[in-house]
Design a protein that fits this description.
mainly alpha; disordered C terminus; 4 helices; Four Helix Bundle (Hemerythrin (Met), subunit A); about 0% strand
């Protein structure tokens, strides 16, 4: 009887230690990318840029006219990049099908991979053009602030898995 009791204590101790280690690990702070909300400059879906919503640019203190221009730029960019995202999703599905074929055709696989790279290139070029369009709307002081945040990758003012974001909630929404 004594051996069973000791065995039970050891098992319970191990389980307790594992629970303690797990709860301690998940309670640790993030990877240094901040504590606010948002996806930051390096964000991904759904708007590809992460900072597309005007409220994510609230730190710039945009005028009403600038906010309208930013929203128009965002809408234009989203509609343009939606087609790219759709194409990319189709290519990823095709690649999955080709990869798992009984006899994979490497020429076809390589072509799909190349096509995916071309789409990603177009998306990156579109993103960079969008950033320049945004910069054109800003005053010199706002542009300097915007560029400083871009150089930092949007880190430090937001949380999330896309490289940070900007503090605060959009007051208009």
């Amino acid at each position: 009887m004594r051996k069973v009791s000791m065995f039970t204590k050891v098992i319970l101790s191990i389980v307790g230690l594992m629970f303690f280690a797990y709860s301690t690990a998940i309670a640790q702070p993030g990877n240094g990318r901040g504590q606010g909300q948002g996806q930051g400059f390096r964000g991904g879906e759904p708007n590809e840029m992460g900072f597309g919503q005007v409220c994510r640019l609230a730190f710039l203190d945009l005028s009403d006219d600038q906010q309208k221009q930013m929203e128009a730029l965002r809408t234009k960019h989203l509609s343009e990049t939606q087609g790219y995202r759709n194409e990319l999703n189709e290519k990823e599905a095709k690649l999955g099908t080709l990869r798992t074929a009984a006899k994979p055709d490497m020429a076809q696989i390589n072509q799909v991979v190349k096509d995916m790279g071309d789409i990603k290139l177009k998306m990156a070029q579109s993103r960079e053009a969008h950033i320049q369009d945004i910069r054109k709307v800003l005053t010199d002081a706002q542009r300097a602030e915007f560029d400083a945040h871009a150089a930092a990758g949007g880190r430090g003012m937001g949380k999330g898995h896309h490289g940070g974001g900007f503090k605060g909630n959009c007051p208009n929404r």
